[in-house]
Amino acid sequence: MVKLMDNPLSISEKKEIFSLLRLVRQYTGKRFSSREISRFREIMHHAMRCSLSVRDSKGLSPAILSLRTALLFAEAIEPDHNILLAIGLYPILCDAQISIEEIRKEWGDDVASLLEGLLAVDKFSNKNNATNQDNFRGLMLSLADDIRVIIIMIIRNLVLMRAINHHPDQEWVRNVAFEASCLYAQLAHRLGLYKIKGELEDLSLKYTNREIYTQIAHKLNETKRSRDAYIKSFIDPVKTKLEEAGLKFDIKGRTKSISSIWNKMKKQKVDLQGIYDLFAIRVIIDTPKEKEKSDCWLAYSIVADMYTANPARMKDWISIPKSNGYESLHATVMGPGSKWVEVQFRTKRMDLVAEKGLAAHWRYKGVKSDSTDQWMTNIRDILETAETGPMQLMKDMRMDVYGKEVFAFTPKGDLFRLAAGATVLDFAFMIHSNVGAHCTGAVVNGQHRKITYRINNGDTVEILTASNQTPKADWLNIVVSSKARNKIKQSLNEELQHRAELGKELFERRAKNRKIEIDESILMKLITKSGYKYANEFFADMADEKIDPGKFLSSYVEETAPKNEGQKVSAEEYQMQSREENSGKADVLVIGEKSINGLNYKFAKCCAPIYGDNVFGFISSDGTVKIHRCDCPNAANITQRYPYRIIRADWSGKQGELLPVSLKIVGNDDIGILANITSIISKEMGANLRNVTVDSHDGMFQGILVVAVSDQRQLSMLLKKLKTVKGVKDIQRL
User: Fold this and answer.
1) What is the distance between the terminal CA atoms of the chain, rounded to a whole angstrom?
2) Are 192 and 354 in contact (CB under 8 A)?
């Protein structure tokens, strides 16, 4: 929802709103009835009198942004009736000037559905998706429901990017730029909106690396005159030859986008002068559909006769178009002055698709696009099964979107598009997840091939399967598609979980036979000490007989055995002793209506409560009352499963002995930083440092401090002081 601020628009901004309304109306033409125009204008005027004349939390006008979005959509895509209505009504809906029910009644189900899609997307958009996996997945799944919502969001993101140049909140600008480059530019590319994709990437570079952007832009301006003269010298003789062949055409010369040039400079490790194809020539032929291919190839042959072509850089997307509908014939030729020039040959129809995107038209015009629907389905599969973070998700999507394609057939003649480098295993997962999971190889063009075989254009592939075949970990090194990779990971995780359950059941049965009560917190510490990061991996190895449950139980008994008084102990051991020694000693707690005195109680090891924490009591099976913090990680599970064993617990007001607290600290691995930390603790009256464990890596350290404190107030004061130490990035209680 749009959060508005009490910061009115200027007179010029209000004038812009009405000017934009007029321009949008010009584009809509006969698509809106006079009643619709009148009603929409009435709603807008009412909104202007209320709160749409103010700004959002970033100082921008939602009304202006929405109208600019509607205008850009009409110019760049198509002046579609329902989409323009949805864009125009959106800020009014967000500001509660009108409800979904009213819109549905007055404007129809389709407009209401589009607005509901936009509302769903806004729950996740611009919420630090770069670091929050759930936000990113939620955003993408919302987008995947309706391709029209994707197109609106792409256009809206471009409008926003245009509006935030020199915005004071630079961190927010960088987040918006990141999302534009990694998400919306990729979606625009996939939908064939190349012009929009290029501008999004240029603006993203501008906001994240303004120095590089300015340098390239400045150098391009300096060389513009000579570049234009070169393009003219190349085009003029080509025009003459094409006219002699009787072709009707237009020729355009264009410079590549700044972001594209920067990417080439990084990839080729050269400066601007080293980029040989700074510009491209586009030959757009006016010809009937039945003569499109022949006329494009005729134009190519004429240019290739005039200038030497580079066959290695020939790209034929006329014979087999890209999956987003893009059709064009690309050639690179040696022009005057021994300079390489890229020449693109396409027809007017192809150019329209390339400029505005095939996917931006098919749903409105009733033309079916199976490939686009399939792509959205694949995206949903990737997002729903992915377990990596959003950065890896975006990397996977970028590979799928920008990678070259190969085409292969099934024995029945069905054509499949795959990323370049795809293997038999990728092809199997493309057909179906179960086919991929049981794949043992394939018959390719009549010959048996392994799952590692890389598919070539035109291959006929028959997948071979076996019921006893299951995904293996090394399959992850074979596949290139993110869908196949995530399906394999999902299957491996399910298998690991199954083995872990068997191993845990075996362990618990052994413990029960030996009448050993297992404390989960101590168990997890022992598992960690054994070199396992996750308990599932530990129990899976136990199921595979790599770990002897009897020996491990003996280690557990030894770990939990009481220690002699004179012995040196670790922080963890100190924590167990000190808490049990406190049992029943001090009248520091009141349980229910009774004093704690005389009752058998323990402080829970999982959350280590101290005086002043909000706590509750849990009556365990042996009658002992265990005291937990209310924010204990196990609190929700305990209260849900055993509400009848929960009992109120309050501090009586009498402060007890020092109790240990574990603190996790992260910071720069600077000389003397640990000495500064321990010095502050030693100077804190009543506090006592019990143990320090530190692990450093790549200039950073992460440590666990066990500190004995008297109460919650003292802990809060100590945390504040530790946070002031130079180099400390984060410190929190475990």
Assistant:
1) 35
2) yes
DSSP string covering 308-328: EE-GGG-EETTTS--TT----
Angle between helices 62-76 and 147-163 (to 10 degrees): 120
What is the distance between the alpha carbons of residues 525 and 511, in angstroms, rounded to a whole number? Answer: 17
Give me 669's structure tokens. Answer: 């691995």
Burial 658-676 (b: 16+ CB within 10 A, else e): bbbbbbebebebeeebbee
Query: Are 556 and 516 contacting, i.e. CB atoms less than 8 angstroms apart?
Result: yes
- On whether the pTM is more than 0.70, the answer is no
Task: Give one DSSP letter per residue of 564-598, joined into a string.
Answer: PTTS---HHHHHHHHHHHTTTTS--EEETTEESTT
The arrangement of strands across the sheet holding 700-709 comes to 688-697, 700-709, 659-668, 728-733
Residues 349-367 as b/e (b if ≥16 CB within 10 A, e otherwise) read: bbbebbebbbbbbbbeeee
Model pLDDT for residues 478-498, shown as the tens digit of each residue: 998 877 888 888 888 888 888
- Could you give the CA distance from residue 411 to residue 163 in angstroms, rounded to a whole number? 53
* Tens-place pLDDT, residues 300-309: 999 999 998 8
Spatial distance between the Cα atoms of 113 and 149, rounded to a whole number of angstroms: 10
DSSP state of 272: G
Q: Are 130 and 178 in contact (CB under 8 A)?
A: yes
State the CB neighbour count (10 A cutoff) for residue 224.
11
Distance CA(307)–CA(339), nearest Å, equals: 11
Residue 176 class from Cβ within 10 Å (0-12 exposed, 13-18 middle, 19+ buried)?
buried
What is the band of 248 on the pLDDT scale with cuts at 50, 70, 90?
very high
CB 307 within 8 A of CB 369: no
Q: How far apart are CA 111 and CA 458, in angstroms?
A: 43
* CA-based nearest residue to 718, from 690, 680, 688, 689: 680
Reported as a single tens digit per residue, the pLDDT across 133-163 is 444 545 555 555 667 787 888 899 999 999 9
183 DSSP assignment: I
DSSP labels, 90-142 = HHHHHTTSS-HHHHHHHH-HHHHHHHHHHHHHHTTTTS-TTT-HHHHHHHHHH
Q: Are 332 and 342 contacting, i.e. CB atoms less than 8 angstroms apart?
A: yes
Q: How far apart are CA 406 and CA 694, in angstroms?
A: 51
Q: Which residues, at least 6 apart from 679, have a Cβ–Cβ distance to it below 8 Å?
A: none
DSSP one-letter string for 321-389:
--TT----EEEEEEEGGGEEEEEEEEEHHHHHHHHH-THHHHHHHT---HHHHHHHHHHHHHHHH--S-
Within 13 A of 551's CA, how many CA atoms are on the CB side? 6
Q: Encode 320-336: b = buried (16+ Cβ within 10 Å), e = exposed.
A: ebbbbbbbbbbbbbebe
Q: Which two tokens stand for residue 561?
A: 């055995």
Backbone torsions φ then ψ of 167, nearest 5 degrees: -65, 140
Most confident region among 45-49, 68-72, 576-580, 697-701 by mean pLDDT:
68-72
Round to whole Å and give the CA distance between 191 and 193.
Answer: 6
Cβ burial of 67 (10 Å; 0-12, 13-18, 19+) is: buried
Residue 330 forms beta bridges with which residues? Answer: 315, 344
How many angstroms separate the Cα of 675 from the Cα of each of 316, 446, 577, 671, 701?
66, 71, 27, 9, 14
Structure tokens belonging to residue 64: 């202006």
